Amino acid sequence: MSIAKTLDRTISVSPERAQEASTDLAIVRRVQEGDVAAFDRLILKYRERIYSVIYNLTGNREDTSDLTQDSFIKAFQSINRFRANSSFFTWLYRIAVNTTLTFLRKNKLRRFLSFDKINEDGESAEVIDALVTKSHSDRDALRRELQEKLNEAFQRLSFKHRTVVTLFEIDQLSHREIAEIMGCSEGTVRSRLHYAKQELQSQLQDYLK
Amino acid sequence: MVDGKKTNNRQISLEQLLRVKRAEQPEPEFWDQFEQEYRQKQLSALVQAQPWFVRLGRTIGMIARRSAPVTAAAAAIATGYFVVSGPSIVTTSPESSPVSERYETIAVRPVESQVVASVGNLPEMIVQPVATRSDRFEARPLPITARARYIEDIMAKDDQPQRYVTLSSPKTLFTGSSPSGTYVVNALSSQTSFGRPSSRTVAQF
Question: What is the CATH number of domain A112-209?
Fold first, then answer.
């Protein structure tokens, strides 16, 4: 990702996101007026992203499946209370984050369950290739090891730090959007991001050399 | 490309490493099962029992809505009955209803030789014990509590009991004529009900 793009994310909400928000709002209005089937469009649109956020917060793919479904059910049940004070997706993310937090508080003793395979795109494949060349190890074994180490490092972070890193680095939301989701200031988001990255850096230094 | 150069030089940044996590997504087949499970959960959420406080609130609301006409009618009947019956049945508070309304007969005569105390500038008087209207309520007590305001009792000086009347609860009185001195009024209970009044007589000045 280019520096300019990262900088843009830190400053404001992109026009694409604004357009997306108005499309979502139109669908939400339809659901509120009784066209409940329209909610399926919102599920289709956001399920991967919500799943990804929850997966990175829990580190367990089975829990993630349940929590993603629960988040959509909660969103559907409360859709009449959505007043469009924020965009639909930040509202939905907030539900997902809060649902996950409640779950994690109740289930402190959990095991992590990563994916057996990953959908390697250009960027992630490049990173894995570089690591393989460096360590001269088996690609699959290294990929699995990296997945587990990343998962472990993530789970060592506090929930708030984990959420900020997930939303910024993985889901690529802006500081403002994260602040809206987490109910804090943008400054707090920046500060949490800084400390979380510092911690991750120290835990993953073997791969960063 | 900056990222590409870094990778070629085998220097991996934390941000690049985190992109591996972005690739962690379930297989496309997973979403079919997800949708099926979601539909089941959605249906069960619809029939799930709600928490007790939600149900209680709903029940109260329903009862209130259904009983509103009955309650309004009862209130109208009660109001009409009380208006027609007048103050002989309901005496709301002693402050709002004069003593003369609450008691049948008040007999007051000027003090001659027995009572020698007075309250401020009031004339010296003695009150005769009389039967009160409240005696009649003993037969049909009403579930209304009223506060007795005027109480008669004994005022003593130098161990000589003398009958006198005061307008309120126990207090110290200063006599206006001979024999001068301080008289203490021992009033009876100021709390009473229609069924059992505590005062025997009342004074009216």
Answer: 1.10.10.10
Report the predicted TM-score, pTM, of the whole model to 2 decimal places.
Answer: 0.58
> Which residues from A are below 8 Å from B19, CB to CB?
123-124, 127
Q: What is the pLDDT of residues B112-146, one digit of tens each?
A: 333 334 444 443 444 434 434 444 444 343 343 33
All residues at 6 or more sequence positions from B144 whose CB lies less than 8 Å from its CB, including other chains: B90, B91, B193, B194
Q: What is the pLDDT of residues A77-90, one digit of tens each?
A: 999 989 888 899 99
Q: What is the pLDDT of residue A71?
A: 95
The ranges assigned to domains in chain A are 12-109, 112-209
Which residues of chain A have a CB within 8 Å of the CB of B35? 43
Q: Do domains A12-109 and A112-209 have the same CATH topology?
A: no
DSSP letters of A87-145?
-HHHHHHHHHHHHHHHHHHH--S---B--SS----HHHHHHHHHHHHHHT--HHHHHHH
- Between chain A and chain B, the number of residue pairs with CB atoms below 8 A apart is 106
CB-CB under 8 Å, A2 with B18:
no
Whether A132 has its CB under 8 Å from any CB of chain B: the answer is no
**Domain spanning A12-109: which CATH class is it, in words?**
mainly alpha
B81 in A contact zone (CB under 8 Å): no
Q: What residues of B are in contact with residue A114 (Cβ under 8 Å)?
A: 24
Write out pLDDT tens, residues B16-51: 888 888 888 888 888 999 999 998 888 887 776 666
